[in-house]
Amino acid sequence: MKNVILLALVVCFLQGYGAQKEKKSERKKAEKGWVKLFNGKNLKNWKFSEDEGTFSVKDGAIMVHGKRSHLYYDGPVSNHNFTNFELKADVMTEPGSNSGLYFHTEFQDEGFPDKGYEVQVNNSHSDWKRTSGLYDVMDLKEVPTKDNEWFTMQINVTGKHIVVSLNGKTTVDFIEPENPQYKGHPQRKIAHGTFALQGHDPKSIVYFKNILVKPLP
């Protein structure tokens, strides 16, 4: 009888161990494919427009504070040319700040990027279009996050399908129509390109860290 009980305990232990091992393996698989775009130390592989002083590194994050400028990813991952992908970043805004995260864009010397889409970063700026909306396409009036708190924003693009989430909750689920036309944005369309962080104005202070991408087929 003791042997039977002992055998049962061993079986239960092995089953539990096997389940834990399987879950760990699944987590590792899920984490595979994610690549850092920002090393947390300096702005290597990033290229700024207009004003270099707008971007700096503070406490392991990219600090955006200064005149209008944009910081474009210009590194080796996918030769900074992405089509289908998952992108995620931890973001924090100070009160009254405005920024954005562009995708499918390309470097330009000055002005707001013409090419690609912008995901808004703005919890309390005078512009009513709030964080994690698709700017001038599917805007949000309210957002469940606050200034001075880190939040995670994720952007998934597959074909014509764009999904944006904030702290794991979907805020935008958008399929681009045929021949999209948005006032003031003739090149706002799904194509391919790089990512860019926005320096909107001298009064805005925004931080980005843990910027990761998973290129998809």
Protein model, in words:
- The chain has one helix and 13 strands.
- By secondary structure, it is mainly β.
- It has one helix at residues 2-31, and strands spanning 35-36, 46-48, 55-58, 61-64, 69-73, 84-93, 99-105, 117-121, 151-158, 161-166, 169-175, 194-199, 206-216.
- The longest helix has 30 residues, at 2-31.
- The chain is globular and about 70 Å long.
- The strands form two sheets. Strands 1, 3, 4, 6, 9, 10, 11 and 13 form an eight-stranded antiparallel sheet that branches. A five-stranded antiparallel sheet has the order 2-5-12-7-8, with no helix packed on it.
- Helices cover 14% and strands 36% of the residues.
- It has two domains: 1-32; 36-216, Exo-inulinase, domain 1 (Jelly Rolls), CATH 2.60.120.
Helix and strand composition category: mainly beta
Computed Rg: 21 Å
* Total tally of structural domains: 2
> Would you count the extended β strands for me?
13
How much helical structure, as a percent, in the residues?
10-25%
Q: Uncertain regions: pLDDT < 50 for 5+ in a row?
A: 22-30
What is the top-level CATH class of the largest domain? Mainly Beta
Query: Which term fits the overall shape?
Result: globular
Mean pLDDT reading = 90
| Corresponding CATH superfamily of the largest domain | Exo-inulinase, domain 1
Q: How far apart lie the N and C ends?
A: 57 Å
Compact description:
This protein has one helix spanning 2-31; strands at 35-36, 46-48, 55-58, 61-64, 69-73, 84-93, 99-105, 117-121, 151-158, 161-166, 169-175, 194-199, 206-216.
